Amino acid sequence: MNRIVVDPDSGIPPWRQIKDQFVRLIQLGALPVGAQLPSIRQLARDLGLSTGTVARVYRELEAAGVLQTARRAGTVVAAIPTQETDSAAVLDRAAAEFVLSAKALGMTVTDALHAVERAWD
């Protein structure tokens, strides 16, 4: 699948990049409901990633009702992602950026969690 690209230097985990791109392609209609996706093995090979990474994306999108997998038919787009899916993506990206900043400052996980708790209050 040529439209999915993973940037190893982005700081965002590859599975998250793939998931976000699938969501965007489905919302834009580039992958309409009923469109067949490549197999997990094929997409992993095309992107140079492990099958586990791609399987995680498919599992999460299946759990959200966006994808559906049937043994004979493979994986197809089942529905257009909801706002909830988008909100989770935005939060995950923000968290990834925060973690990178905290690590660059030499902070521990505990330090970072305390910073989040202080900001939350």
From TrEMBL:
UniProt superkingdom: Bacteria
Record's keyword terms, sorted: DNA-binding, Transcription, Transcription regulation
Gene Ontology molecular function: DNA binding
Keyword hit for Cell cycle: no
Domain HTH gntR-type: 12-80
Keyword Ligase (UniProt): no
Protein's recorded name: DNA-binding transcriptional regulator YhcF (GntR family)
Organism: Kibdelosporangium banguiense
